[in-house]
């Protein structure tokens, strides 16, 4: 099982990014996929989840309260990719972002830095 995260970068407050997570080593469309983040000096924390049906309704995806209305999770089962669209970014969103099923080994993550 492997996850490869990409799409991070340096962005000003209020800006946007789209993160990608490419998964391999398991039957992708059978599993809930989650995004997590780890800010400097803090523990890794859950950000969003998407279940196996794709983000076509509000019941399919779930979000941590601080990102609701700003982040959007989606998936492409043909490509084994999960996306996380980050809008209206705030400095407190600065962290390394990871994807996972919840109990797998962690990938390298992708760094998001929000700063003016």
Structure write-up:
There is one protein chain. This protein has about 120 residues and is mainly beta. It has no helices and ten strands. It has strands spanning about 1-5, 10, 15-25, 35-40, 45-50, 60-65, 70-75, 80-85, 95-100, 110-115. A six-stranded mixed β-sheet has the order 2-10-9-4-5-6, with no helix packed on it. Strands 1-3-8-7 form a four-stranded antiparallel β-sheet, with no helix packed on it. Strand 4 (about 35-40) and strand 5 form a beta hairpin. The termini are far apart.
Notable features of this structure?
four-stranded antiparallel β-sheet; mainly beta; 116 residues; six-stranded mixed β-sheet; 47% strand; globular
Q: Overall mean pLDDT score?
A: 93
Alpha-carbon distance between the two ends: 37 Å
N to C succession of SSEs: EEEEEEEEEE
Helical amount: under 10%
Strand arrangement across the biggest beta sheet: 2-10-9-4-5-6
- Give the uncertain stretches in residue-range form: none
Subunit arrangement of the protein: single chain
| Structural class by sheet pairing and helices | mainly beta
Q: Report the C-alpha radius of gyration, rounded.
A: 13 Å
* Main pleated sheet: 6 strands, mixed
Strand fraction equals over 45%
Work out the number of β strands.
Answer: 10
Per the principal axes of the C-alpha atoms, what is the gross shape?
Answer: globular
Number of DSSP helices? 0
């Amino acid at each position: 099982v492997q996850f490869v995260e990409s799409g991070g970068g340096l962005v000003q407050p209020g800006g946007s990014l789209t993160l990608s997570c490419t998964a391999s080593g398991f039957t992708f469309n059978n599993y809930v996929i989650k995004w997590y983040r780890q800010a400097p000096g803090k523990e890794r924390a859950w950000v969003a989840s998407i279940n196996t049906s794709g983000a076509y309704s509000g019941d399919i995806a779930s979000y941590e309260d601080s990102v609701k209305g700003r982040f959007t999770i989606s998936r492409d089962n043909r490509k084994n990719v999960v996306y996380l669209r980050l809008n209206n970014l705030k400095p407190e969103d600065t962290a390394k972002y990871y994807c996972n099923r919840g109990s797998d080994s962690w990938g390298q993550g992708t760094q998001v830095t929000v700063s003016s």
